[in-house]
Input
Amino acid sequence: MTVRVLSAGDDFVLNRLLADALVSKVPVPLDISEISLPWPVKPFGRVAEVDEASGTEEQMIEALRGVQICVTQMAPLTERILQASPELRLFCVGRGGPVNVNLDAATLHGVAITFAPGRNAQATAEHTVAMMLSGLRRIPGTHSDLMAGTWRGDYYRYESVGRELADSVVGLVGYGAIGSKVAGILSGFGVRVVFHDPYLTDVPVGAAESVSLEALLEQSHVVSLHARATPTTRGMIGAPQIAAMPQGSVLVNCARGSLLDYDAVCDALESGHLFAAAFDVFPEEPIPVGSRLRRTPNVIMTPHLAGASRETASNAADIIAADVARYLGDEPLLHCANPEVLPGKAHPDA
Output
């Protein structure tokens, strides 16, 4: 029996990557149809009741007619789409979490939702360390000066230069897939790494030391955020926490914009308390034209692309294709967000 599959790719996780992964991992015949979503050329946004999605409900309703399985990164799955897609049984999201899915509605409709944790961990970890170095050594700012024809020899003054990573203390707020990889990379620099992660039950031995958030902030020359966005973590780093950091330290956020009070960071940069701050994520994306971040000194910004590597795109396709193969082989799903819809097929570690 041929299974009908919709591949809803975009300009990052390409349809050809999804199709190649499915063909290589799924042993049963597939009838694969495709649609292309406009992300990342057009930013993702809210679609009906779901966040961070690309495409429209109308587009998905039409494309999902008669489809049993959908593989995607950014396509929305809303109550309206589910009501119009009675044959849909598996919806696979190539992201760290299915934020573009109405999970409660999917569960009520009996649609299993899978996702792809860790697909961008290495890329984000490497980008994070690059942001640390860029902040410590003024790389973006001095590049811009040279491009404008200005040779800033005054940056060589003792008061103006940054510190080396070697022999520094770097504090990681969150020690999951990305934070632990950052620690591994930093070990080669001779860095002392400390971390705070209240959700980590088995504290690893070796690369980093577990400390309280207060102790981390007080001793770290660089603080890097790697926590998940939850109601508990929203605004977890504000003016009091930044004030607790050492004079001349650097703050990095490649996780989620909601973790941080960006006005408090701007205040600390303008006062000289922070040496630099580097951000890949923001409270509002794209950044508004009038954002204070655009005029605050020593801010380094990239447009939410820390996880953007070719390997990330391939990893996403491979991870979700593997769960499609498990589903069709009647095996437990490895990354299922609502295993209760598939009794007996939930992985014990899900």
User: Anything to note?
Assistant: The two ends are 29 Å apart (CA to CA). Residues 262 and 310 are 30 Å apart (CA to CA).
